[in-house]
Amino acid sequence: MRRNWSQQELAERLGVSRQTINAIEAERYDPSLPLAIKIAKLFGKPVETIFVGED
Amino acid sequence: MAREPMTPSQKRYQRRSWLIALIAAAVFVTAVVALDPVLHRPKRGDDILAMLAGFLMMQMAVIITVSYFFAAKEMPRQRMLQVLTPVTTGVALFLPMAGQDLIDPRVNFAIVVALTAASFWFIWRIWRTSDELYRSLTKDSYVVSYFVLVIALWIYAAGERLGLFGGVTAWGGLAFATLISFPCTIWVAVRRGLNRPPKDE
């Protein structure tokens, strides 16, 4: 799943701000469903693989 | 637990944040010194609150402007609106006090109404061009501010009804509400991690 994109590059690909990516990575913000799906599509993985933690 | 070492971009971000804070502090001190005679004029308590709120609004505009030149030049139109909003609000707060002896009250009032309308239009434009994090930040800030203000009003109203205190004017209430919005917004922004440096490189 590594793409070596910076937060800025990923933000531009998703059409959001760099701060949004930072907040999602830091688990300070849960993205909306449309954005979560967009992220999953971009990485070619199911949403739950990206967002569901290992319990 | 040992802290993770900072990446070069995080170090740059931290240095930039300190520099912006220093520039903003210098501007604030200069403004206070320049307005010293006005600030020392005997004033009503609500005027002092309104002046402080106006200063903080102007300070916010300075910080956003300075940070634009240091950060990535993204969304210039939105940044401009983010500067214009606190400027119009700040001027609308200063005018009823500063323009009292200079401008006809009806003209002064018309200008304040126009500035308030412009400020709300800027906020609307920012909302339209913001992404979901900023919209969530805006909504949460309003919600937190609302709760703090309702609690403050509740306590004040009870005290006033009991004859313990009173005399708060609408002008003082407006200044207080504006001031309260600052810590509420900062608290929400920190909770959302907006103070965290980027995790790049």
Which features characterize this protein?
heterodimer, A: 55 residues, mainly alpha, 4 helices, 58% helix, 0% strand, B: mainly alpha
Structure description:
The complex is a heterodimer of chains A (55) and B (201). With 55 residues, chain A is mainly α. Chain A is built from 4 helices and no strands. In chain A, helix 1 (7-14) crosses helix 2 (18-25). Chain A is globular, with a radius of gyration of 11 Å. The two termini of chain A are 20 Å apart. The mean pLDDT of chain A is 86. With 201 residues, chain B is mainly alpha-helical. Chain B has one domain. In chain B, 79% of the residues lie in helices and 0% in strands. Chain B has 7 helices and no strands. In chain B, helix 3 runs antiparallel to helix 4 and helix 4 (76-98) runs antiparallel to helix 5. The longest helix of chain B has 30 residues, at 132-161. The radius of gyration of chain B is 19 Å and the shape is globular. The two termini of chain B are 23 Å apart. The model of chain B has no long low-confidence stretch (mean pLDDT 85).
Briefly, what is this?
Chain A has 55 residues and is an all-alpha fold. In chain A, 58% of the residues lie in helices and 0% in strands.
Q: Low-confidence parts of chain A lasting 5 or more residues at pLDDT below 50?
A: none
Shape of chain B: globular
Strand content of chain B: under 5%
Per DSSP E runs of 2 or more residues, the count of β-strands of chain A stands at 0
Compressed to H and E, one letter per element, the order of chain B equals HHHHHHH
The rounded distance between the terminal residues' Cα atoms of chain B is 23 Å
Radius of gyration of chain B (Å): 19 Å
Strand content of chain A: under 5%
Ordered list of secondary-structure elements with their pairings:
The complex is a heterodimer of chains A (55) and B (201).
Chain A: H1 7-14, H2 18-25, H3 33-43, H4 47-51
Chain B: H1 8-34, H2 36-40, H3 45-70, H4 76-98, H5 105-129, H6 132-161, H7 170-191
